[in-house]
Specification:
Pfam families: HTH_3, Peptidase_M78. By secondary structure, the chain is an alpha/beta fold. It contains 17 helices and six strands. The protein folds into three domains: about 60 residues, 434 Repressor (Amino-terminal Domain) (Orthogonal Bundle), CATH 1.10.260; about 190 residues, Orthogonal Bundle (Arc Repressor Mutant, subunit A); about 40 residues. α1 crosses α6, α13 runs antiparallel to α14 and α15 runs antiparallel to α16. The protein starts with a helix and ends with a helix.
Length: about 350
C-alpha cells in the first residue's frame, strides 16, 4: 500500500489534496487521492505514474514499503509557527532521509550508527555542568581544544544525518529516526540560507540536546545553549586569547575571534559573559552597539559573516556522485535523488571535475 509514502511526498511538496489532483491534470479527484493516502484504494498504473510525476518522485519510491518516522522532534522555530508548517517540515525531512538511506543501500553501505559519546547522557543539575559535558564530548571524540572547521561534516562522520533545507520560519529540527528493523538514528535539519556561524551554533545546540540530561529544574534550552558555546569556544582557549578578566572588548577584537572560532560576534559576547571575562554591564553595552548596527535583527549580517555554503553537509551529495560514477544509478536517478535537474547535475559534476 502506498498511503504513508504518498502522504509524506505530498506534505513535503507543500501541496493540498486538491492541488495534487490539479497537478495531475484532474485525472482523479482530490477525494480519490485522499483514499489512496488512507489506503482505502490503490491507484491504477496510469494514476500512479501521474502521482509520481506531479510529486517529482519515482513510482518505485511510492511502492516501497520501507517507512521512516521521526520521534522526539525538537523544532527551533519562531513563535507562531503553525502545526501545519511543522508537519510539512517533518515530511520534508523524512522524504530527504529516505533518499539518503536509499543511496547508502544502493552502495551496499551500512548506515553509519550514531556514535554516542561514552560520557553521554551527561547529568546537568546546574547550568555550569554543560561546560563539563562539552569538554567530555570533545575528549570522547578526540577533538582536543582546537576550533572545529566543519561542524556538519564532523557530525556526519559521527553518524548524525545532517540535512540542509530551504526553510522560512523554522531554523531547523532535531529528532530520532525510526526505521523498520533498525535502531533509532539521529537527524538534524538546518536552514540552508542561514549564515554559517548561525548554522554552526544551531548544530552544536542540537548536539547538546542529544548528550545532556538536565535535572533539578535546569532549563534544557539554556543548558543546550551553554553546551554549544563551550563546545565551539572552549574556555581555556578563549581565556588564552583574551585574558581571564576584561573591563571591555572592542568590536575589532570580537571580529578577529569570530574568524578563529567560526561563531557570531554576539555568541562570543555571551560566552565572554558566561565565563566571567566581562561582566553583565560590559555585555549589555556591547549588545546595545549590536542593536544600533542592526546585527540583532534579520538578516543578522555582522562584519565578515560566513557565507551559508561554508557550513553545508556534503556527504549525501558525495554518495550520489559515487553511485553515479560506479554505474549504480543513471543521471536522471541521481538528479531525482538530489532534487535538481539533470542540467544542474551536469553543472555540479563539471565543477567537481574542474
Amino acid at each position: 500500500m502506498i498511503g504513508n509514502k504518498l502522504k509524506v511526498a505530498r506534505s513535503a511538496s507543500g501541496m493540498s489534496l486538491r492541488a495534487l489532483a490539479d497537478a495531475m491534470g484532474s485525472i482523479v479527484s482530490a477525494q480519490a487521492v485522499g483514499k489512496y493516502e488512507r489506503n482505502e484504494d490503490m491507484p491504477s498504473s496510469r494514476v500512479l505514474i501521474a502521482l509520481a510525476k506531479a510529486l517529482s518522485v519515482s513510482e518505485e519510491y511510492l511502492l516501497n514499503e520501507d517507512e521512516l518516522s521521526l520521534e522526539g522532534v525538537d523544532f527551533r522555530k519562531k513563535v507562531g509557527t503553525s502545526s501545519r508548517e511543522e508537519a510539512t517540515l517533518e515530511a520534508r525531512a523524512i522524504h530527504m532521509l529516505e533518499r539518503y538511506l536509499a543511496v547508502e543501500d544502493m552502495l551496499q553501505m551500512r548506515s553509519v550508527e550514531w556514535e554516542q559519546p561514552r560520557s553521554a547522557p551527561h547529568p546537568v543539575s546546574d547550568i555550569r555542568d554543560a561546560e563539563d559535558a562539552a569538554r567530555s564530548v570533545r575528549d570522547d571524540w578526540g577533538l582536543g581544544n582546537d576550533p572545529i572547521p566543519q561542524l556538519a561534516e564532523l557530525l556526519e562522520e559521527r553518524g548524525i544525518k545532517v540535512l540542509s533545507l530551504d526553510l522560512d520560519d523554522v531554523d531547523g529540527l532535531a529528532a530520532k529516526v525510526r526505521r523498520k528493523g533498525s535502531d533509532a538514528a539521529r537527524v538534524i535539519v538546518i536552514k540552508q540560507s542561514s549564515w554559517s556561524e548561525r548554522k554552526r551554533f544551531n548544530l552544536a545546540h542540537e548536539l547538546g540536546h542529544m548528550v545532556i540530561a538536565p535535572s533539578g529544574g535546569v532549563d534544557e534550552e539554556k543548558a543546550a545553549h551553554r553546551f554549544a558555546g563551550a563546545f565551539l569556544m572552549p574556555a581555556d582557549v578563549l581565556r588564552a586569547e583574551v585574558g581571564a578578566h576584561r573591563s571591555s572588548i572592542s568590536i575589532g577584537e570580537l571580529v578577529a575571534l569570530k574568524r578563529l572560532f567560526g561563531v557570531s560576534i554576539q555568541a562570543l559576547a555571551y560566552r565572554c559573559k558566561d565565563l566571567g571575562i566581562i561582566n553583565q554591564a560590559a555585555c549589555a553595552r556591547l549588545f546595545k552597539v549590536f542593536a544600533e548596527r542592526g546585527w540583532r535583527t534579520s538578516p543578522f549580517e555582522e562584519p565578515e559573516s560566513m557565507k551559508p555554503e561554508l557550513e553545508e553537509p556534503r556527504r549525501f551529495e558525495r554518495l550520489c556522485f559515487r553511485a553515479l560514477a560506479e554505474g549504480v544509478i543513471g543521471e536522471s536517478r541521481a538528479a531525482e535523488l538530489l532534487g535538481i535537474s539533470v542540467r544542474e547535475l551536469d553543472r555540479r559534476l563539471d565543477q567537481v571535475a574542474a
